[in-house]
Amino acid sequence: MIADDINEVEPYGVDAKGFEPRSDSRSDAHVLIVDDDSRIRQLLRKYLIRSGYRVTEARDALHARSLLGSLSFDILIVDVMMPGESGLDLTRSLQGRTPVLLLTARGEIENRIEGLEAGADDYLAKPFEPRELLLRLDAILRRAHAAPPTPKNAAIRLGGAQFDVERGELRRGDEEIRLTTAEIALMRMLARRVNEPVSRADLLAELGSEDEEERAQERAVDVQVTRLRKKIEENPRAPRFLKTVRGAGYMLTPDTN
Q1: What structural domains and CATH numbers belong to the chain?
Q2: Residues 85, 58: Cα–Cα separation, whole Å
Q3: What CA–CA distance (Å, rounded) separates 47 from 11?
Q4: Partner residues linked to 58 by β-bridges
């Protein structure tokens, strides 16, 4: 387990047998670790490289921005509490351009929800098991690279917005509205079952959530839906397209062609 005092553990508390073989989702995936603690960066780097990732480190948000301007990354692991610009602020500024897994020392539900509201694809509270880190990274990358389902309609009209199911793109006119990998996964799930309620359990399965707290899981889905409404609806408080069906879940009701 990753402890607050890194010196208390071997690298991530596992020996060589604890490292997992390279998986398809990790093949050549490039990870940027953003953390002001050099010990944590080094331990994460060692573990992830042995597990099949390519890894680059950034000591803070400013350093990360410099690297993002010159290199391409598949996913970022970002510590929330850093001097200067916080991990939450960095995540907000990315606007879903690159998937983000947030690391936080505060594991309360509200703190985790704050991370999702900032646009993170997932969060992980310290201390954590290295296997859980890999599971969450793999789940995010699978969503990012998943082949889209074959929908009834390749594009769904939502008032002035349009969602391209195959590309996973949301547009309003010529403007592309950035979506996180989690938001894309939810939209595709809802698009497969338009005008039909989709339960939170089904949406959680689509997200590949590993969180064992039922309340935290449900809140995570609610936060993603709230974020989607802000991007889709003219009035998110009175949704026309992404509706809540009491006791059943959520339902996408697009314009008819």
Answers
A1: 6-145 (3.40.50.2300), 155-252 (1.10.10.10)
A2: 13
A3: 7
A4: 34
DSSP 198: B
Q: For residues 209 and 220, what is the distance between their CA atoms, to the nearest angstrom?
A: 9
DSSP letter, residue 25:
G
Give the integer Cα–Cα distance in Å for 83 and 242.
38
Q: Give yes or no for a contact between 96 and 107, defined as CB atoms under 8 angstroms apart.
A: no
* Strand-by-strand arrangement of the 155-158 sheet: 155-158, 161-164, 169-172, 175-177
Structural tokens at position 62: 């400013």
Q: Which two tokens stand for residue 74?
A: 């598949």
Longest Cα–Cα distance in the chain: 61
Chain centroid offset of residue 191 CA: 19
- Structural contact between residues 109 and 219, judged by C-beta atoms closer than 8 angstroms: yes
pLDDT in tens, 102-149: 998 876 677 778 888 888 988 888 888 888 999 999 988 887 776 555
Distances (CA, A) of 256 to 107, 153, 157: 43, 11, 8
